[in-house]
Amino acid sequence: MALLPLRKVEPSRDAVDLYDRWLEEISNALERGEDRWELCRRTLTGIFYPGLDPSRIEDLPLASRAALAQMDARNVTLEPEYYAEVDVERFQERKPLLWMWQMFDRSPLGGDVHLGVRFRRVLAPYIFKRVGKNFKAFHFVEVSFGYNLEVGDDVVVHRNVLLDDRGGIVLGDRVSISDYANVYSHTHSIVDQADVSAMKTVIGDGVRITYHATVLAGTCVGENAMVGALAVATRDVKPWHVNVGIPAKSVRIKPNAPPDVLAGNVVCKPGPRDDEREP
Q: CA-CA-CA-CA torsion for 154, 156, 126, 25, nearest 10 degrees?
């Protein structure tokens, strides 16, 4: 196999300057503590209905007015709001930004990698519990509450990934999650669907979750491990191990694993709880 580092690609200089000015405007509004509901409504209206004349809204067909109403997050409900354990106050702080994120992805702008990665990076610190440097999310990444999601440095989340942080998700440094993967942190009883268990899911430093893989609630994937394509991790994955299949099982240890891993002396460590972290 060949080493193929990513190329550096940018749009035209004029486009880059335009995008930077627009993102700076949004970032400054968030830093100033502007009303997030109005920021969401104004931003999405500008994207989907440029040049709209507010005085003519009542003249629009009902379908058009209903579509226009979706630009304001106060006029929509999101699935996590229906969960019994939702912290309403914390979710409401994030709801307009979550809606901005989702609707941006559905707009003509969402597929632009250059702009999209930077747009989501602006919003992430105000949605997630914690986010490190160089966070990169491609389009159609979805999170649940947002406030239960911790993200380390240099994390990459590819297209159409679900991060269900209902019970809490921790993504360590340099984690890579491939297209269409799912990471869960809650599960339902097989007897009663309303009987829900919320369990923190921990993805260690340097882990790769590959295409269409699923990590179930409460699982700890150890550092530098890999969950293979289409695999379903139902139990902890040992550090440096490659797990594949349904349910996922270890099929090999990475050849560059340290000696203690090769000797079988290392297990997955879920990391410190919130109250155990260094101040």
A: 90
Q: What is the pTM of this model?
A: 0.93
**Selection from 267, 37, 30, 270 nearest residue 150 by Cα:** 270
Place of tokens 């193929």: 4
pLDDT digits (tens, 9 = 90+) for 173-225: 999 999 999 999 999 999 999 999 999 999 999 999 999 999 999 999 999 99
Q: CA 272 → CA 62, 197, 275, 278, distances in Å?
A: 53, 20, 8, 9
Which tokens is 158 given? 């590819």
Tell me the C-alpha to C-alpha distance, in Å, between residue 39 and each of 109, 120, 207, 218. 17, 15, 36, 36
Q: Which domains does the chain have, with CATH numbers?
A: 15-127 (no CATH), 132-269 (2.160.10.10)
Return the SS3 of 143: strand
